[in-house]
Amino acid sequence: MKSLIVIRHAKSDRDQPFLADIDRPLNNRGKRDAPVMGDVLKFRGQEPDLIVTSPAKRALETAELIAEAVGYDSRAIAVRDSIYLQGTPALLELIRSLENIYNRVYLIGHNPDLSELVTRLTGESLGTLPTCGIAAIKFPVDAWAYVMHGSGRLVFFDSPKQHP
């Protein structure tokens, strides 16, 4: 069985309009929410075998904060350009290319792609995945190559607003 933990990056700072989108960092709320959601994942026993993130600064910072909270070596975080605003086909291709030694993978990226991905993989619409929101999906397969639309089951959905 394979598990995909889809995580939208935490809240980013929009107060520096001169920064390119890819360079926007987390704001204070994002820096607070990411470790909390990492703690939630650890409490649920959902530690990752692999963390894969977008190269955007806000996503990478989210990945690093969550990694620290769950006890994952941040030097082992995989950065993939295909997660940064490349659409759901690119995300699905990335998922299908994962090595089968990994059973639980965190995928950290952006909307609208992640919200659409969750809907396509599970057949369930969560609406818009909030910042630092988490959707955990299980697939009854032994190889990532067999992940397809509608093949996943939503195990849980969680967000920072559920943990004030």
Overall description:
This protein is an alpha/beta fold. The chain has one domain: Phosphoglycerate mutase-like (Rossmann fold). Helices cover 30% and strands 19% of the residues. The chain has four helices and six strands; from the N terminus they run βαβαβαβαββ. Strands 3-2-4-1-5-6 form a six-stranded mixed β-sheet, sandwiched between helices. Helix 1 runs parallel beside helix 2. The longest helix is centred in the first third of the chain and has 16 residues. The radius of gyration is 14 Å and the shape is globular. The chain starts with a strand and ends in a 6-residue tail after the last strand.
List keywords for this structure.
164 residues; alpha/beta; Rossmann fold; six-stranded mixed beta sheet; 4 helices; globular
Characterize the main sheet: 6 strands, mixed
Radius of gyration: 14 Å
Question: How many structural domains?
Answer: 1
What oligomeric state best describes the polypeptide chains here?
single chain
Order of helices and strands: EHEHEHEHEE
Q: What is the CATH C level class, in words?
A: Alpha Beta
Shape label: globular
Strand content: 15-25%
Span between termini: 32 Å
Tell me the CATH architecture: 3-Layer(aba) Sandwich
Number of helices: 4
Largest sheet strand order: 3-2-4-1-5-6
- The unreliable regions are none
The CATH fourth-level homologous superfamily: Phosphoglycerate mutase-like
Task: Tell me the total number of β-strands.
Answer: 6
